[in-house]
Structure prediction request, 296 residues.
Amino acid sequence: MLDNLVDQYINYIIVEKGLSDNTVESYSSDLALFLEFLKKNRTRNISDVDTAVILKHLSALRDSGLGAKSRTRHLVTLRGFYRFLMQEKIVKHNPLKIIDLPKSGLKLPDVLSVEEVKKLLNICDTKKPKGIRDAAMIELLYAAGLRVSELVNVKLQNVSLEAGFVRVFGKGSKERIVPIGLYAKEKIDCYIKSSRPLLLKKMVSQYLFIARPGKPMTRQGFWKQLKKYGQIAGIKKRITPHSLRHSFASHLLEGGADLRAVQIMLGHVDISTTQIYTHVARKRLKEMHEKYHPRG
Prediction:
């Protein structure tokens, strides 16, 4: 079935589009890789391919060593293929509709594996107040997919451990509420009760994470700590706060989470261009986080 669809499309671009032999050869090569990926993942019906599957395929191409320009061309090929499938009414939805085509080439971020994340989350020395704080910060960063600026600006009143949510303010001061999962709840609770008072030294602060008496942790300070923990854990990849944000999204998608819900949790909502991400209820988000997140 899948092979037949590709054959129909190749015939279409030869006969009706009149594309050059080199272009047809490139498109055929790209679609052969796409079919190989679908077969490996036991996807037999084209209607079962959603945006998450496309993103996983693009990630696999990157991991195989395919350059950014080649991946961009591959994405162009898939777009043309799906325009044809929509035109012929073979599929009802285009899974590439919300995947942007970067001008400078498709660049997919490096992510940590689940095992690498576990190593990082367990490396802090929780016998020391700063170790307890750092463990809570790294756990929350991964659990909620926060930007580092959002993490260091979380206030004590923004965390609801009972409900299992954190309230953050992203770019443009846009507010969102994200589930944090059991592990993060436990580590934050431990930090608030045992470590935070010691770090404050009788000072007062509205911020959740304290670097020194009365002063919140800075982005640079946390980045430095995270880099140190990555080295101690023996992780060879370059680790940044954004690495954990990307890992959060990738691990949810790989587990089967709905891309739209993940984008809401990441705060990638642009009301001026799309409303499709705004209709997922908080309860549904929390259920999906608990179901699909490795540490939910």
About this structure: Confidence is low (pLDDT under 50) at residues 103-108, 269-282. The chain has two domains: 2-87, 114-292. The longest strand covers residues 165-169. Residues 2-87 form a domain with the DNA polymerase; domain 1 fold (CATH 1.10.150).
